[in-house]
Amino acid sequence: MIKVTNLRKRFKDLVVLDGIDLEVNRGEVVAIIGPSGSGKSTLLRCLNLLEKPDDGIIQIGDATLDAKKYGRGDVYKLRKQTAMVFQNYNLFKNKTALQNVIESLIVTKRIKRDEARNIGMALLEQVGLAEKADSYPITLSGGQQQRVGIARALAVDPHAILFDEPTSALDPELVAEVLQVIKAIVQRQTTSIIVTHEMAFAREVADKVIFMADGNIVEQGTPEQLFDHPQNPRTKKFLQQVSH
């Protein structure tokens, strides 16, 4: 479903992604963990070209893009394959929860407003927010805003959902409600890549866990392999630090 070959990205002299190779199968849930600045979020943002990689090949669904040579059509085709859930929600402040969810259906998928509304309401129901359909983001808690963000990502029926630290901007007491919603989604065999610092959550929902440091994939395996029997000294050290 997703295949990345030799993906490289640098910001001036700083190498952020140093030749990443990655494969995610259809229906697989992959969690990416690692210290801050290891390139996790940049990797996700390169998958839909929010960041432009310097080198490498990205294949998602039936779209393939070569970072060295591509046109606008290639970008559009690649972006259509995934939807992203951001750390800081990225909702339109001047639109209601429902309008946020259905905007892309009406604008990019050209779905009639009534039909889009029905889809949007069903998705808000799914994330437990049907009664907040007409509320504006400013009146919603962080957890509720993030759940609207998740409903919006689901609306376009993507091949894969990219979650970029979906709970990092939330107060601790709101984290659980969002993780609960994500868990329900990924259990439906939705192909997902989740960048997260919630280790217990990664262990519970992921089929595969990837540990990144300094722009490299240092180690990957099942949650049991990575959390209980890490092979690389850097993985061991990181897990010791985050478990205290």
From TrEMBL:
One GO MF term attached to the UniProt entry: ATP binding
Name of the featured protein: Amino-acid import ATP-binding protein YxeO
Any matching Pfam family: ABC_tran
PROSITE patterns in the cross-refs: ABC_TRANSPORTER_1 (PS00211), ABC_TRANSPORTER_2 (PS50893)
ABC transporter domain location: 2-239
Enzyme class: hydrolase
Membrane topology: Peripheral membrane protein
Coiled coil (UniProt feature): none
EC number: 3.6.3.-
Lineage: Bacteria, Bacillati, Bacillota, Bacilli, Bacillales
Localization per Swiss-Prot or TrEMBL: Cell membrane
Organism for this UniProt entry: Paenibacillus solanacearum
Annotated Gene Ontology cellular component terms: plasma membrane
Superkingdom field: Bacteria
Keywords: ATP-binding, Cell membrane, Hydrolase, Membrane, Nucleotide-binding, Transport
